[in-house]
Design brief:
The protein is globular. Helix content is 83%, strand content 0%. It is mostly helical. The N terminus is likely disordered. The protein has one domain.
């Protein structure tokens, strides 16, 4: 079995290499390759973490982890102001330091606001079983650490230190596994989120240890204002769109916690963790490189690279879906253990995830050509449409029916996003 898997992996790798070679893809493939090694090893360890949770963790612990990670992703842009993207393209060290200071100050304000929200109990998800003061405190800590990781990764990316980034990804995954095992047996339902938070803590330290560039000067208030004005389109335009994007993915999780049980929340999360995490991390790594390359390319170069990347990503997505479709039932049992998940639900959610995998990296063309405002053309209506559907039209009695409705709508909306980016590529100068 191991031999056949190795042969399949080699065949896929050779096929992708042929496609890339044939199309002469104009990318920093060394950077993608270095990150890919870290991604593959890190995701292999993450897979072990999830397999452990399906056997020794409770459905509630997995559901808590789902809420935990979804809210982190939704709130991260609010704290970073999307300056982690500006950090990569900023030319002066003073601007980069200003990004860090503004983000740190905003993180303090956000923490205070979240504490008030928790105290007055205004969110529906606070009624979900397992939400407690302890889980809230852990979330606050993880939110701040996640922001540090975003800027640490941006710093290494700006230095093209892809090998260091890969090592940190591996370290974070290993620490998450070890800490999750220990805390699950010791604490119980909070073990999964504690393990993840501990890995965030160590990773944030490693990012700044590897990325430190020497002494720096604290900028004055007038310098902060100047930097903000220069890069204002990131917090004023890109940030709201990133928040909408985060809540776009958070909406179904919140809906499931208020209508269905921890079992359905865990099932939804497990598919996105098994399939979504590897594709998302790979897509994010490619996005980092595309952002850099799209920024320096001319119109013809961007259009050519966009089309070639679309081809390669679509090919990879088709291979992934074909592999899952022919996967035997025994593999599902191996991954999920005693937790039962309908194969149809697994495939439906996977199809939606692979469509995002194809489209998301290509959207980097928008900030690269200074058209971040166009994100609103897709993200705001899409969020409103999805939220309206989930709240008023989503099936509340049959989980499979709800998943089918959600996936059909999600794929349609992402296809429109792709068409928007294609139009920008063809018309931007």
């Amino acid at each position: 079995m191991a031999c056949s898997r190795t042969q399949i992996a080699k065949l896929i790798r050779k096929t992708v290499q042929k496609v890339i070679a044939k199309k002469k893809l104009d990318l920093d493939l060394t950077g993608v390759g270095s990150l890919s090694v870290g991604i593959v090893l890190g995701q292999a360890v993450n897979l072990l973490t999830i397999i452990f949770l399906t056997r020794y963790g409770s459905e509630l612990s997995i559901a808590l982890l789902a809420l935990f990670t979804a809210n982190l992703a939704a709130l991260a842009p609010l704290i970073s102001l999307r300056f982690e993207i500006a950090y990569v393209v900023a030319e002066t060290n003073a601007d980069k330091i200003a990004f860090l200071i503004m983000s740190f100050c905003l993180s303090l304000v956000t923490v205070v606001a979240l504490c008030l929200i928790y105290i007055f109990d205004v969110l529906p998800m606070q009624d979900f079983e397992g939400i407690s003061l302890a889980s809230f405190v852990v979330f606050i800590v993880a939110l701040v650490l996640n922001n540090l990781i975003l800027f640490g990764a941006a710093n290494l990316n700006s230095q093209s230190a892809y090998i260091k980034m890969a090592w940190i990804l591996i370290l974070q995954s290993v620490l998450c596994l070890i800490a999750t095992i220990a805390s699950t047996f010791w604490i119980g339902d909070l073990g999964a989120i504690l393990g993840l938070t501990f890995s965030y803590f160590v990773s944030s330290l490693m990012y700044f240890k590897f990325g430190a560039t020497g002494h720096f000067t604290i900028p004055k208030l007038v310098d902060l204002k100047s930097t903000f004005k220069k890069f204002a389109h990131y917090p004023l335009i890109s940030m709201p769109m990133a928040i909408l994007n985060g809540y776009y993915h958070l909406v179904p999780i919140v809906f499931l916690t208020t209508v269905y049980s921890a079992t359905e929340v865990a099932a939804f999360f497990l598919v996105h963790r098994f399939i979504g995490s590897p594709t998302a991390v790979l897509g994010t790594s490619l996005s980092n490189v595309l952002l850099k390359d799209f920024s320096v390319m001319g119109q013809q170069g961007r259009q050519t690279t966009f089309n070639k990347c679309s081809l390669v990503l679509t090919f990879l997505a088709a291979v992934g879906m074909s592999f899952l479709f022919f996967l035997p039932e025994s593999i599902y049992e191996l991954l999920l253990g005693p937790m039962k998940l309908d194969r149809q639900i697994f495939l439906l959610l996977s199809a939606s995830i692979f469509v995002r995998f194809v489209v998301s990296p290509l959207t980097m063309v928008l900030p690269a050509v200074g058209r971040v405002g166009l994100e609103a053309v897709w993200k705001l209506p899409s969020f409103l449409i999805l939220a309206f559907f989930v709240i008023f039209l989503g099936d509340r009695s049959n989980f499979t029916t709800f998943v089918f409705q959600y996936v059909f709508l999600d794929i349609g909306l992402y296809f429109l996003y792709y068409l928007l980016c294609l139009i920008v590529v063809k018309t931007s100068k």
